[in-house]
């Protein structure tokens, strides 16, 4: 073990420690964990801040009624996610190549400035542009998830990624709370105590106050990262524009650094420090060729599609007029989301224990999809009981948060299990690209679809129930696919690998958790990619597996 994790230092993993099975759970490094939690909360707050008031804000900018705002509100939400789609791979590459800290600082600083600009905007199309740029420069969560993978081992991995999941749920909820309570403080009942006058600055810029609060929070996140967070990527190289250009655009070097010169007597003179070798780059093409990485990215995308559909429609549905809506206000959405934080927090606190109890990640996945889908299907029936409609929505939302939180935790946990350590951030970037794509496209579809469903008297199920039912489809699909898809861990070839072949031998624990125990074999192509290779016969696999020792639960030492 490296430094004492209780003192806040990031533990260094040695091969000897990883090879030795132990029941003792390694404590998470306190300082790095605190800083990472603060950073992880940033993106979901950015994403969800506008959810409670997006309909009212669009109505304010475009001078239309909130019932008609659904036709345009999806644009503001979707463009933020589109920016992430285009930049996720870039942030993963920067984090894996040049380190976690510089990537994190750049993302957080740009987010703070752009959030302030969004609050000052008084034009619909300018607001859309700002949200797009904000999404493009928002890579903090990708980097933070890679940090969690860096500072955890096989004994505390579930706990670490439960933290990732709970920060998304809690951050998403608190972003909605800030947006609902602080939007339009001049006319908001919850902020009338401030004594603000009509016609003033905050009346002309109703979204400025919540945006300013989030800007301050991002400044806090930057400060905590500077003070508490060490660099956890031990394979990073110093940043240079020449190196960035050669890695990103695939150019070869034109200069060679001579590190030493020897003479006939064996004496050697050091001339320069050799440049450390950067980890191989994971491209989208390679990721799609590797079935486990492709499959977990698909699962992440489908879960995110359901999540953003519910978040987008909940606010529009509550403020819509009866009988299709609940005819509430933005602060009603905020109160609901504040209540939703309780099961999201509790379910993730006990996630590690639940994972051990089930001892099968995919069985827990299927149970979580059942809870989530049932809650989504039951929610719109609240309009049948007007006197208790609000509480019906609350109960369904509480159970929904349990299923959604566990699905996100499992996505992060399984991603870490199938990823080579050199590609952790890049795998998260690829997965988040797919998730961001879903979060980009879905608002463009569900917002106008919901506006259409409540525009006039439509019969069941084409009324307001339609979008809730559609939101339940993606998680149901993942539950079915979890029975058949491949989630075997991927191992990169190393310099010690003989005949350019990698064999993955899984432990009995992997088998019990639902992972395949068939041998995986891949060969390294000249460009660093993978191609299929014949799987050794049973006797040969058994002979090789007996000569290898486990490095982690799912990885092996490839040298003989």
Describe, in short, the structure shown.
It is built from 23 helices and 5 strands. With 560 residues, the chain is mainly alpha-helical.
Structure description:
The chain has 560 residues and is mainly alpha-helical. It has two domains: 27-233, Growth Hormone, Chain: A (Up-down Bundle); 281-491, Growth Hormone, Chain: A, CATH 1.20.1250. The protein is built from 23 helices and five strands. The strands form two sheets. It has a three-stranded antiparallel sheet with strand order 3-4-5, with no helix packed on it. A two-stranded antiparallel ribbon has the order 1-2. The longest helix has 30 residues, at 389-418. The chain is globular and about 60 Å long. The chain starts with 14 loop residues before the first helix and ends in a 13-residue tail after the last helix. Residues 1-22, 252-260, 268-276 and 495-560 have low confidence and may be disordered. Keywords: Membrane, Transmembrane, Transmembrane helix, Transport. It is a multi-pass membrane protein.
**Hey, roughly how much beta strand do the residues contain?**
under 5%
What is the chain-wise order of helices and strands? HHHHHHHHHHHHEEHHHHHHHHHEHEEH
Number of strands: 5
Secondary structure class reads: mainly alpha
Largest sheet: 3 strands, antiparallel
- Please state how the strands of the largest beta sheet are arranged side by side: 3-4-5
The multimeric state of the shown protein is: single chain
Mean pLDDT: 74
The DSSP helix count reads 23
CATH architecture of the largest domain: Up-down Bundle
Unreliable spans are: 1-22, 252-260, 268-276, 495-560
Whole-angstrom Rg: 25 Å
């Amino acid at each position: 073990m490296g430094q004492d994790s209780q003192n806040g230092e990031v533990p260094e993993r040695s091969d000897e420690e990883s090879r030795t099975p132990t029941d003792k759970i390694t404590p998470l490094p306190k300082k790095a964990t605190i800083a990472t939690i603060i950073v992880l909360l940033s993106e979901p707050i950015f994403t969800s801040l506008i959810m409670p008031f997006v309909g009212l804000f669009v109505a304010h900018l475009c001078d239309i009624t909130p019932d008609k705002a659904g036709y345009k509100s999806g644009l503001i939400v979707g463009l933020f996610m589109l920016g992430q789609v285009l930049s996720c791979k870039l942030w993963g590459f920067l984090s894996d190549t040049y380190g976690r800290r510089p990537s994190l600082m750049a993302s957080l600083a740009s987010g703070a400035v752009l959030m302030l600009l969004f609050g000052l905007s008084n034009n619909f199309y300018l607001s859309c542009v700002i949200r797009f740029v904000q999404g493009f420069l928002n890579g903090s969560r990708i980097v933070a998830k890679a940090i969690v993978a860096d500072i955890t081992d096989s004994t505390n991995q579930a706990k670490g990624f439960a933290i990732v999941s709970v920060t998304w749920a809690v951050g998403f909820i608190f972003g909605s709370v800030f947006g609902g309570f602080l939007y339009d403080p001049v006319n908001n009942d919850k902020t009338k105590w401030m004594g603000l006058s009509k016609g003033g600055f905050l009346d002309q810029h109703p979204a400025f106050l919540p945006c300013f609060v989030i800007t301050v929070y991002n400044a806090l996140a930057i400060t905590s990262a500077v003070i508490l967070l060490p660099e956890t990527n031990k394979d990073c190289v110093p940043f240079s524009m020449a190196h960035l250009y050669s890695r990103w655009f695939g150019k070869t070097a034109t200069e060679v650094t001579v590190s030493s010169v020897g003479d006939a007597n064996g004496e050697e003179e050091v001339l320069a420090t050799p440049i450390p070798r950067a980890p191989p780059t994971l491209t989208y093409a390679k990721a799609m060729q590797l079935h486990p990485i492709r499959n977990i990215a698909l699962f992440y995308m489908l879960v995110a599609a359901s999540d953003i559909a519910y978040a987008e429609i909940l606010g529009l549905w509550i403020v819509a007029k009866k009988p299709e809506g609940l005819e509430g206000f933005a602060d009603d959405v905020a109160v609901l989301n504040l209540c939703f934080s309780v099961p999201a927090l509790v379910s993730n606190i006990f996630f590690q224990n639940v994972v051990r109890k089930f001892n099968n990640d995919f069985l827990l996945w299927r149970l979580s999809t059942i809870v989530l889908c049932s809650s989504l299907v039951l929610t719109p029936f609240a309009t049948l009981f007007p006197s208790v409609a609000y509480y019906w929505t609350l109960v369904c939302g509480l159970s929904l948060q349990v299923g959604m939180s566990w699905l996100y935790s499992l996505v992060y946990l399984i991603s870490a299990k199938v990823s080579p350590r050199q590609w952790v951030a890049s795998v998260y970037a690829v997965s988040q690209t797919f998730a961001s794509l879903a979060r980009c496209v879905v608002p463009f579809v569900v917002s106008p679809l919901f506006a259409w469903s409540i525009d006039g008297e439509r019969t069941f199920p084409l009324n307001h129930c339609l979008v809730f039912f559609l939101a339940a489809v993606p998680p149901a699909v993942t539950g079915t696919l979890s029975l058949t898809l491949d989630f075997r861990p991927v191992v990169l070839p190393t310099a010690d690998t003989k005949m350019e072949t990698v064999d993955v031998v899984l432990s009995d624990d992997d088998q019990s958790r639902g992972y395949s125990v068939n041998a995986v074999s891949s060969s390294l192509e000249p460009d660093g990619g993978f191609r299929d290779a014949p799987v050794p016969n049973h006797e040969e696999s058994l002979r090789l597996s007996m000569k290898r020792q486990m490095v982690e639960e799912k990885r092996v030492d490839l040298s003989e």
